[in-house]
């Protein structure tokens, strides 16, 4: 009806399609109805860690998310050391976590980056520790 909603609880939910129609890149919606948390806080937001991490890594590798598997290594995806650091920063921002990763000496890091699956497992652990 064009009138603003006085009670936000009665406002209809915004869908991914609505957000895309508005052209709002920072809407937080990607891949249909997945919510990517652009504000950098995961409080009160149901997120799919697996899909978000794969999306972040795929973006760094300039690949489709379907091309990234749990067994993929960052090297096999063509992600170099700079891409790794950018991926870590994007992951930290998306999940509001601090990844214990030493970019100057990745082999001595407490964070396993050997495969996409190990990265996802590490992130899930960090999120659980924060809760």
Secondary structure topology:
Layout: H1 16-21, E1 29-30, E2 34-35, H2 49-61, H3 81-95, H4 116-130
Antiparallel strand pairs: 1-2
Helix pairs in contact: 2-3, 2-4
Structural key phrases:
37% helix, 131 residues, mainly alpha, globular, two-stranded antiparallel ribbon
Would you write up a description of this structure?
- By secondary structure, this protein is mainly α.
- It has four helices and two strands.
- The protein has helices at residues 16-21, 49-61, 81-95, 116-130, and strands spanning 29-30, 34-35.
- It has a two-stranded antiparallel sheet with strand order 1-2.
- Helix 2 (49-61) packs across helix 4 (116-130).
- The longest helix has 15 residues, at 81-95.
- It starts with 15 loop residues before the first helix and ends with a helix.
- The model is unreliable at 5-11 and 13-47 (pLDDT under 50).
Question: How would you summarize what this structure contains?
Answer:
It is built from 4 helices and 2 strands; from the N terminus they run H-E-E-H-H-H. The chain has helices spanning 16-21, 49-61, 81-95, 116-130, and strands spanning 29-30, 34-35.
Morphology call = globular
Number of strands: 2
CA radius of gyration: 17 Å
Distance N to C terminus: 41 Å
Q: What is the beta-strand fraction?
A: under 5%
Instruction: Provide the spatial order of strands within the biggest beta sheet.
Output: 1-2
- Share of helical residues: 25-40%
Class from secondary-structure proportions:
mainly alpha
Main beta sheet: 2 strands, antiparallel
Query: Helical element count?
Result: 4
Parts with pLDDT < 50 across at least 5 consecutive residues? 5-11, 13-47
Q: State the order of secondary-structure elements, H for helix, E for strand.
A: HEEHHH
Can you give the mean pLDDT?
A: 74
